[in-house]
Design brief:
mainly alpha, 2 helices, about 95% helix, rod-shaped
Length: about 100
């Protein structure tokens, strides 16, 4: 069992040496910069798309509110006209009934 632990120690030391070598050559730094740059680009793209979705949702909400105001105004005007029309038709029907 002690032999297995020794192999782990050797493998760990080799990995540490490899990472140290990459760090000294600048390759590790270049890779970290590339990964960070890619992450920033992805973040910017996601933020831009998210803002586009929010803007579209705000536009749809504004249009729905506008249409609701129009519908309410039309309904109010129709209700006012209906009262006058109903009174006029009632008077005509009553006049026809009196003649019959």
């Amino acid at each position: 069992m002690k032999v297995n632990h020794a192999w782990f120690a050797v493998a760990g030391a080799a990995a540490a040496g490899a990472v140290a070598g990459l760090a000294n050559s600048g390759l590790l730094h270049k890779a970290a910069v590339a990964v960070t740059t890619a992450g920033i680009k992805v973040t910017d793209a996601v933020a831009s798309e998210t803002q586009s979705i929010v803007d579209d949702a705000n536009d749809a909400t504004a249009e729905a509110r506008r249409q609701a105001k129009i519908d309410a105004a039309v309904a109010a005007r129709l209700a006012a006209l209906e009262g006058d029309i109903r009174a006029e038709v009632t008077a005509e029907v009553d006049a026809e009934g009196a003649e019959a």
